[in-house]
Amino acid sequence: MVLALLKRDLALATRAGGGFGLAVAFFLILCALVPFGVGPDTGALRPIGPGILWVGALLACLLSLDRIFALDHEDGSMDLLATAPIPLEGVVAVKALAHWITSGLPLIVAAPVFGLLLHLPGAATPWLIASLLVGTPALSMLGAFGAAITVGLRRGGLLLSLLVLPLYIPTLIFGTEVVRRGAEGGDPATPMLFLAGITAGVIALVPFAAAAALRVNLR
Amino acid sequence: MSIWEYANPVKFMRLSGAILPWVVVGAVLCTVGGVVWGFLTPLDYKQGATVKIVFLHVPAAMMAINIWVMMLVTSLIWLIRRHHVSALAAKAAAPVGAVMTLIALATGAIWGQPMWGSWWEWDPRLTSFLILFLFYVGYIALWSAIEDPDSAADLTGVLCLVGSVFALLSRYAVLFWNQGLHQGASLSVAPGERMSAVYRYPLYLSMLGFLLLFLALLLIRTRTEIRRRRLAALQAREIRG
Q: Which residues contact B73 (CB under 8 A, 6 or more apart)?
């Protein structure tokens, strides 16, 4: 049942056009725009690279959030999923996982290449991948919560960003810190542990809040 | 006789109507008294006249945090016991809290310009207040976006719970991110760090004034919300009738 739902969501995301590619393309444009804004200097790009990469990943993740529940809510599949044998919390977790595979994972694969564009030091690249790998599941899960709250609204897109982005702040702080310390040769273990702690807490607790919001919207 | 009796809107309206004039008078007396008394205090030997903004800044900052805590408690009461007055009180408190946060940020900027030489610093306290303001804005926007009042109360209640956790988390995450410029707690009980009595007593009065001011605004706004709800019920009956 869990696997079937995951397969269905992945198939829908990839076949509906631009599932995997869109987030990465957006990420690329963002990373390409920054040098136009701040100048092509290595000295100017290097210190802000980790921050730009993380903010870019965060915004690219935001792009596809409203689709997590919207289509299922419109065509009534959500009602079926609510009465399915697995609890609604599980449905939320699986949908967040599908979102992470379609938009989080491609970003992680693309991030080292985009790091080159921003002159990120080679020593920081493993830390960039590791921090994204640990941090982005929390972004998808929190995004699923925001999507669950705004699913009943006709134009919830802007409101969704307003609600979700403040929740991303702790993940952003620790994620950037890991990459910055990796680039400067500091000790990235401490922020990495904080980042992992936030992700673990989010995955454990937020599905309950998201499922509660979904139940309200299904009434 | 328990506190839950006042969850009944009729009883709440009667009680709040009776105490509202007294709260308003107390709020005006204490706020005006505290600020005027604060204005008459001698100049600080280091900060000069700029110290006087503390009588607006500290009470507003205190209320900004406490109003969010009050919203958290009333949201929990709504989610657990389904008392409508509680949900409406949370709705009524949010804009007041957002304005208090703005007052704290604005007075801080006005004070910071001559003292720190800049309107804004990415200091942990300033940053966490900005984040708190964002949470207030999101909360208010969600209330206004949903039509069905009960769904709106439920969803904003859940958002308030999750938001509280993340506001607290951000408060400590920003400490990790940047070391601060802002001074420590204004009203420390530790001897030697205490504010001089000349400034402390007007500050206490001003804080009491802001508390009463919030209470007055909260009662007025909650009463308005209850009346609006009754009006909507009457109109619905009219249409059906």
A: none
Residue A94 half-sphere exposure toward CB, CA atoms < 13 A: 17
> Domain map of chain A by residue range?
2-218
Contact B153, B91 (CB under 8 A): yes
Predicted TM-score (pTM) of this structure = 0.90
What whole-number distance in Å separates Cα of residue A190 and Cα of residue B173? 12
Contacts of A152 in chain B (CB under 8 A): 146, 151
ipTM field: 0.89
One-letter amino acid of B119: W
| Closest of A7, A189, A148 to residue B154, by C-alpha | A148
Chain A residues touching B169 at Cβ < 8 A: 170, 198
Q: Give tens-digit pLDDT for B148-191.
A: 888 999 999 999 999 999 999 988 888 877 766 676 666 655 55
Determine contact, residues A102/A68, Cβ cutoff 8 Å.
no
Interface test with B, best of A167, A174, A203 (most B CBs within 10 A): A167
A194 vs B170: CB contact, 8 Å cut-off?
no
Token output for A30? 């963002």
Q: How far apart are CA B109 and CA A124, in angstroms?
A: 37
| A177 with B163: Cβ contact below 8 A | no
- Of the partner residues A150, A162, A170, the one whose CB lies closest to the CB of residue B170: A170
Residues with Cβ within 8 Å of residue B111, at least 6 apart in sequence? B50, B53, B54, B57
CB A136 within 8 A of CB A104: yes
CA B162 – CA A178 distance, rounded (Å) = 25
Q: How far is it, in rounded angstroms, from Cα A97 to Cα A141? A: 8
Q: Which residues of B199-212 are buried (b: 16+ CB within 10 A; e: fewer)?
A: beebbebbbbbbbb
Of A81, A94, A68, A62, nearest to A16 (Cα)?
A: A68
Q: At what angle do helices B84-116 and B197-240 cross, to 10 degrees?
A: 140
Provide the token pair at A162: 């307003």
**pLDDT tens-digit map of B69-90:** 999 999 999 999 888 899 999 9
Q: Using CA of residue A83, residue A86, residue A88, residue A91, what is the dihedral sign?
A: negative
DSSP A102: I
Token pair of A45, please? Answer: 């790009």
CA-closest candidate to residue B7, choices B96, B95, B77: B77
- Both tokens of A166, joined, read 């403040």
Three-state secondary-structure class, residue B164: helix
Distance CA B237, CA B241 (A): 6
CA atoms within 13 A of residue B199's CA, in its CB half-sphere: 20
